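W.,

You were right to be curious about this one. When I first looked at the sequence I had no strong expectations either way, so I just let the prediction run and decided to look at it fresh. Below is the sequence, 534 residues in total, followed by the output.
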Amino acid sequence: MKADIIIYNGPVITVDPQNSIASAVAINDNKIIYVGDNETALSFKQNNTKLVELKGRSLVPGFIDSHLHMAVFGANSIAIDCRSPKVSSIEDIKKLVKEAAALTPKGQWIRGWGYDHSKLKENRHPNRWDLDEVAPDHPVMLTRVCAHISAHNSKSLELAGLDDNPLDPQGGVMDRTNGSLTGVMRENAHMMMMKNAQLTYDELMNAIKTANTQLISQGITSIHDSGGYGSLQMRVMQDAIKEGHLKIRLYAMIFSFIENLKFINDYLKIGVHTNFGNEKFKLGPIKLMIDGSSSGPTAATLEPYESNPNDSGLLTMTQEQIDEIIINAHRSGWQVTSHAVGDKAVTMIINSIEKALEMYPRKDCRHRIEHCAMVNENILNRIKELNIVPIPNPIFLYEFGDGYLKNYGKERAYRMFTNKSFIDKDIIAAGSSDSPITFSDPILNMHLAVNRSTQSGNVLNENEKVTVLEALKMFTYNGAYASFEENIKGSIEVGKLADLVILSQSLLDTPSDKIRDINVDMTIIDGDIVYESQ
């Protein structure tokens, strides 16, 4: 057999069971046909073989982000960017909204994302009156960086049919002042408002195209899409693959910000289940959302917050409601998962998974917990016993870690995203970014798994640092395992799909505090070069 591409003069970090380091790889069509030494790899050369010399740069498996909102990621690129440090005050936000209003026909939506009220000069959320001042004729929705809270103007509230005396939805809060809605919506109230600001087919298609381009430039070859826009998004993603706009492989969770339980039940009625599809697009787990965000903070905790002894977060569902969905989905052949951040929420999803397995035993279910941020020894032992796959977000420690210390206290902050503890207990945890909540760059995510430093330089528990090889495995093999695909991708081995990434330098020779400085020089998916740095 001859090779279409030969990549040689390594190191090739295979992430195989022995953590082998090879020198070269040969590819034919979309599969790896040889991994080993330079001389043997070059023997597969033919007249039209493309030769790529590494010159000491590392070749690694394609990165797998096991929790990323692809459509939301792309849609945010065409919305107002309210992120810190570019935006440091509500006045900055008002200026951006006013500029958008001048360019947007009256009555059409103005959307923004990424503001963090804790980093604004006013130390509060923007409210309806702030936004009415600069955009009285447009509905406005600004989503906080956590994507669990949003701020709306009066036109947005009007479109939702809300007066000043609505009841809070279960698991949600509408902020009020002097009896009037402020326009700030939390958890299920925020999800409810999204129904009025849905994107069109064309907007979603543009979002998917944009996301694809940006993500492959970061070496991401597969994502576990964590949902967002329901059935329309599922249609758009499939169309994007069919039309050749989407190169990244998708493992699609069944989750919608809007009427999620109805969305899930519709799938349960069809009769299909997890792993229906092919190497390009597969159905993933049924996904619930139990509690709030780590940074809001609205995560549901067993003990009150350090910053507020009267607060222990928000639950969006009862244990009985969670049990009903999880048990039904498990019985129907689905992998199940839930957004669960606080230790109370993590305990509740574990309870439901345990009940489902006791009632309807099934082998190798690989049920998951998205984020699984806050754990204790009992939680770790139960996760191991039930073969649950946690999906942590190492980069959250950088972006939100200083807030964790303030809101949860040192003891709990040190037990957040405990990647080393997972490894020590032989728990397979798959790395993810939860982008666009924070940055999607997998190299930066690995850097944070290795270093665990916050923006101010605090290190959240030296004992939870992992090695660079362990971090790489989280974002390659473990991601493939979490989607039942470790036999076809996630490591560089003969017979596996040719999803590969060339880094700008040697990963293993880079000092741990400099990992974030590494770039992606080339991304290969299905044996095709889909990105090459200039």
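Here's what jumped out at me. The radius of gyration is 23 Å. And, maybe more interesting for your project: The chain has 18 helices and 23 strands.

Coffee later to discuss?

I.
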